[in-house]
Design brief:
two-stranded antiparallel ribbon; 49% helix; alpha+beta
Length: 403
């Protein structure tokens, strides 16, 4: 599921993921168009959903990728591939902590470290846990994302200060003329304090660019380990959230104006529509356009968080955190839980579900049991017990504090 890093250009030609690609080389945008044609006539085609998610991710469109993986999870919730894909989406958005429950769930469903290691390794790098990151990258060297895992391993070793090992890891890529190795080598030198060598290397890889990227390369050694990983892998600097000027990446196939809910709405229409009777070559209206010069960043895709609504009707899946006869005590209980890990509860609101015999403190609603299980495991990691609960039609559920 590992997509090419922003500062380390993804290959323009490659396989399209998890055994669903074609035998001959194919551009990523062509693969995405092919998957979309399949989904137009077969919206629940699991292989096409996974392939489309991976292709969208490789093209930098994390929001569309998340939509495809979510649909794939609905089709086959026992497969590790959608969970691994959502983890990769979170990592691509710089949401390392949010990615971990997805990777945990993927592994529980049978995903080997060789498959998820490239992306989980980057999550560990972003968290400043370079030893764990490097172990995952090494596991991924035997998997489908071996080339990108090798690039990320070299960068991680450089973040750890081991320039010699980092350059040694890059040697096989240099030997076969990998297009991105020159930039990776420049970043390795910059990360380990050799700014002059980095300037020479980056000018060789990207002629005439040294003056533009000089501030970036000189600043790298001053960052914290997690910040370094975000900078060289995702192009994100502290307090900016924007791509670095040093990017030389495969461009997104979407213009900046197309990123957002309109395209996701088109995906929903496509995947919910009945099978098309049109000719197989007919394209949906939102098919990829010509590549643009600038990578279009989508809004971050967080962990599977519950939606916030003023009131809830109908049967939904929730996580129950507490219950008792006294609803007035629930706000304080929720406040104490949030204080244990504010990052985990960021953006999550509590609800009170009133039954005839008790009041429940719940969070949700979730799309299904799979998403609820992921967040339940995340809560358990900070010592908070929760269990899945589905309300009845007679339960009254309102936001906490409004009852």
């Amino acid at each position: 599921m590992c997509a090419g890093a922003v500062l380390v250009a993804a290959p323009a030609v490659g396989q399209t993921g998890y055994g669903y690609g074609v035998s001959q080389p194919e551009t990523t945008s062509a693969a995405l168009a092919r998957y979309i044609r399949t989904l137009a006539s077969d919206p629940r085609n699991f292989g096409a959903l996974i392939g489309a998610g991976k292709a969208a991710l490789e093209l930098g469109d994390t929001q569309a990728a998340a939509g495809f993986f979510a649909r794939a999870d609905e089709v086959n919730p026992r497969s590790p591939l959608p969970q691994a894909g959502m983890g990769a989406v979170s990592v691509a958005n710089g949401e390392a902590q949010a990615a971990m429950p997805y990777f945990t769930r993927a592994q529980q469903l049978g995903a080997p470290a060789a498959t998820i290691g490239c992306d989980r390794g980057l999550a560990y790098d972003l968290l400043g846990q370079q030893a764990k990151a490097q172990a995952d990258y090494r596991a991924a060297l035997t998997g489908p994302d071996a080339t990108e895992a090798r690039r990320r391993l070299a960068l991680s070793l450089a973040i750890s200060g081991d320039q010699a090992s980092a350059l040694q890891v890059l040697a096989p890529l240099s030997a076969r003329g990998d297009a991105a190795v020159g930039r990776v080598r420049a970043f390795v030198l910059a990360l380990t304090g050799d700014s002059r060598g980095a300037m020479v290397a980056i000018d060789a890889a990207m002629p005439g660019s040294w003056s533009r990227v000089s501030p970036f390369l000189q600043k790298l050694p001053t960052l914290q380990p997690g910040q370094k990983a975000a900078a060289v892998n995702l192009g994100i600097f502290p307090d900016s959230g924007a791509p670095a000027l040093a990017t030389n990446t495969v461009a997104s196939p979407y213009s900046a104006s197309s990123v957002g809910t309109n395209r996701l709405a088109s995906i929903d229409e496509l995947l919910q529509s009945p099978p098309a009777s049109a000719a197989p070559a007919e394209q949906p209206s939102w098919q990829p356009a010509a590549a643009t010069a600038q990578l279009a960043y989508a809004a971050p895709v967080p962990r599977p968080t519950p939606s916030v609504q003023p009131a809830v009707n109908g049967r939904k899946v929730w996580l129950q955190l507490a219950s008792g006869p006294n609803a007035e005590a629930l706000p304080e209980q929720f406040r104490r839980m949030k204080s244990r890990n504010r990052t985990l509860f960021d953006g999550i609101s509590g609800y009170v579900a009133r039954s005839t015999d008790r009041a429940r403190l719940v969070i949700g609603p979730f799309r299904g049991n799979s998403d609820a299980e992921i967040f339940q495991e995340d809560l358990q990691s900070v010592g908070i017990d929760a269990f899945s609960w589905t309300n009845s039609d007679s339960d009254r559920i309102v936001p906490l504090g409004t009852e």
